[in-house]
Amino acid sequence: MLDYRTRPLRSVLYMPASNAKAIEKARSLACDAVILDLEDAVAPSEKDSARSRVVGAVQAGGFGYRQVVVRINGLDTPWGAADIAALADVQPDAILAPKVSTADDVRRYDALMAPFPARTHLWIMIETARSIFRIEEIADAASNTRLAAFVMGTNDICKETNARMTNGRAALLPQLSLSVSAARMAGLAIMDGVYNDLQDAAGLEEECCQGLEFGFDGKTLIHPSQIAIANEAFSPTAAEIEFARLVITEFARPENASVGVLRVDGKMVERLHLQQCERLVAITEILTRNAQEAAMPGRQV
Question: Cβ–Cβ contacts within 10 Å for residue 24, how many?
């Protein structure tokens, strides 16, 4: 089973399931996860053909270290249940359910995923006003379901609440903060919403840094050109890695076995910081391994 505490999710790229070239391209991009989108990105007339294309793509594999997630249509549409049934045999890493508003919604999706292997998780979109007011009970549903991650649908939240998506996202700060807190309470991964302006690299970088400060694992993206910025923003810096390794080394000394607080490089460090440092180093090691695999000649990762 994947450990979402240490699995990198810096860059999570939406790709339209109706576009065969986009799906093929996703196999070589430097994103940590790809979302093959059967919902917003696909017109009603193309839903069935897009579903077949996604089933074939997941079955064919070739995505390497990238997590493969399929965003299905909602259960309140003519396609949602059929999407889940069609994906049961091809075992994507996760199913992403849209517009989840209650814990009962989580349980309905989870029940329909009974035929899936245990390795396939449930991710859900947090994108309705009701979901924010029910966020604690939604997160708690992870205790007895496949629920493993939240994905913020900031555009939909703005649409439903009539909020303005301005620089700094002032109108969304309460929703973002509550969602991160709920996710961490339940041990879930959580990805920030998309940045809409493809021409504004500086704005994307600023929003990624804001997401990092809030505690998000990474950012959902709408174009491959955004991957490098998200990867850079959500990757540990060299200084952070060096300090984390130093903290781990100091706490590992026999004379510090029962010590709760240490002074490391001029900073007071508690054992709770040790856990954070261990997580950072684990993520770094995975990122290094992924980069090495990507660099291997003739290796499709």
Answer: 13
Domain count, the chain: 2
**What is the per-residue pLDDT across 250-285, written as a single tens digit (0 to 9) for each?**
999 999 989 999 999 999 999 989 988 999 999 999
Q: For residue 123, what is the domain's CATH number?
A: 3.20.20.60
> Can you list the positions of beta strands (E) in the chain?
11-16, 33-37, 67-71, 94-97, 121-126, 147-152, 189-192, 218-221, 261-264, 267-270
pLDDT at 301: 47
Residue 86 lies in a domain: yes
Residue 225 forms part of a structural domain: yes
Residue 176 falls inside a structural domain: yes
Pull the structure tokens for residue 49: 């053909």
In this predicted model, what pLDDT tens digit does every residue of 179-214 receive, in sequence order? Answer: 999 999 999 999 999 999 999 999 999 999 999 999
The domain in which residue 75 lies consists of 11-234
Tell me the backbone φ, ψ of residue 231, rounded to 5 degrees: -60, -40
Identity (one letter) of the amino acid at 177? S
Q: How far is CA 242 from CA 5, 234, 254, 273, in A?
A: 20, 16, 21, 14
Report the chain's mean pLDDT, rounded to a whole number.
94
DSSP 8-31: --SEEEEEETT-HHHHHHHTTS--
